[in-house]
Amino acid sequence: MLNAATLSDSGFHGYSLATLYPGMYTGKTQTDETTPEPEEQSALAGVEDPIVTVDSKQKMGILALVLVLVSLLFVFGRG
After folding, report:
1. Tens digit of pLDDT for each residue in 9-63?
2. Are 20 and 12 in contact (CB under 8 A)?
3. Which residues of 1-79 form beta strands (DSSP E)?
4. Where are the alpha helices (DSSP H) in the chain?
5. Which of 31, 29, 19 is CA-nearest to residue 8?
6. Measured distance CA(5)–CA(16) in Å, rounded
7. Does pTM top 0.85 for this prediction?
8. C-alpha triplet 39, 30, 49: angle, nearest 5°
9. Cys staple from 32: which of 28, 41, 61, 72, with CB 3.0 to 4.6 Å?
10. Contact at 8 Å (CB) between 24 and 17?
11. How far apart are the first and last CA of the chain?
12. What are phi and psi of 51, to 5 degrees?
């Protein structure tokens, strides 16, 4: 039959969990530590990710570089 003493028993020679781990359930939890403060939440809500734009000149430079590299692989890969 289960009684209150059995439920509070840690299984370690009759000591309760409160005596084995005195500070176990005090203080902040992991959720409390990782949740930002309300002021920080409102500050973060207004920040948007910056969008990087690629102009046509830069896009053509990247395309030319890829074409040169592919042609070099084709020329020197015939070994």
Report:
1. 555 676 777 777 777 767 777 777 777 788 877 777 766 766 777 788 889 999 9
2. yes
3. 9-12, 15-16
4. 4-7, 17-20, 30-34, 38-45, 56-76
5. 19
6. 9
7. no
8. 45
9. 28
10. yes
11. 83
12. -95, 120
**CB neighbours of 33 closer than 8 A, spacing ≥ 6?**
none
Find the radius of gyration of the CA atoms of the chain: 32
Beta carbons of 41 and 48 less than 8 angstroms apart? no
Closest to 77 measured CA to CA, from 69, 16, 65: 69
Give me the residues paired with residue 15 across strands: 12
CA distances from 4 to 10, 16, 18, 66, 78 (A): 12, 11, 14, 74, 82
Report which of residues 79 and 34 the model is more confident about: 34
Query: Which position has the token pair 């074409």?
Result: 67
Q: How confident is the model at residue 67 (pLDDT cuts 50, 70, 90)?
A: very high
Cα separation, 27 vs 34, whole angstroms? 14
